[in-house]
Amino acid sequence: MEWLWYLLTGLGGLLAGGIAGFFIARAWFKNYLKKNPPVNERMIREMMRQMGRTPSEKQVRQILNSMNQVK
């Protein structure tokens, strides 16, 4: 009967740890995305302007598509 208590306690601990880990990881990932947003069209245009180029819409779309394929 004592082994049943250990088994239930262990399973309860695993379940509680899994739930807590999920919410901690979710909060960490939201904070990470807030500090480091994914690349969008505006960012690509700005990077190309900083390099001294004026990008066309086609170039911006090509770069964005190539970046999305890598993911």
TrEMBL record:
Family: Belongs to the UPF0154 family.
Protein name as catalogued: YneF family protein
Source species of the chain: Paracholeplasma vituli
Membrane protein topology class: Single-pass membrane protein
Xref: InterPro entries: UPF0154 (IPR005359)
UniProt superkingdom: Bacteria
Keywords: Membrane, Transmembrane, Transmembrane helix
Transmembrane segments: 6-29
